[in-house]
Specification:
Structural class: mainly alpha
Shape: elongated
Distance between the termini: 27 Å
Helix content: 55-70%
Number of helices: 6
Radius of gyration: 15 Å
Length: about 90
């Protein structure tokens, strides 16, 4: 439940930044940073789908997953899920 940094992963697996980048690009076609952002966005998406709009605020879920800039969070979320966080939160309870 805690977002982590690419540097933490790099240190945990004891490889250089360039090696980690090369491995992620070969396996997933994106950088480690992009991969972890997508993981966090997916986690936020699941939380929003399972939450009640009357009991939680979007920024609470976004902050939980390490997103501090709500405009950027909404833009990245929309790009990945083709809807805004607000829509996801409200859709599951309408």
């Amino acid at each position: 439940n805690k977002p982590f940094r690419v540097s933490e992963v790099r240190q945990a697996v004891a490889v250089s930044e360039s090696t980690l980048n090369r491995l992620f690009n070969a396996k997933f076609g994106i950088s480690p940073k992009s991969y972890f952002i997508k993981l966090r966005l997916n986690a936020a998406h699941q939380d929003l789908k399972q939450s009640s709009p009357s009991k939680i605020k979007i920024y609470t879920i976004a902050n939980k997953w390490g997103f501090w800039h709500m405009g950027q969070f909404a833009a990245d979320y929309r790009k990945l899920f083709d809807e805004l966080p607000f829509d996801t939160l409200n859709k599951s309870h309408s």
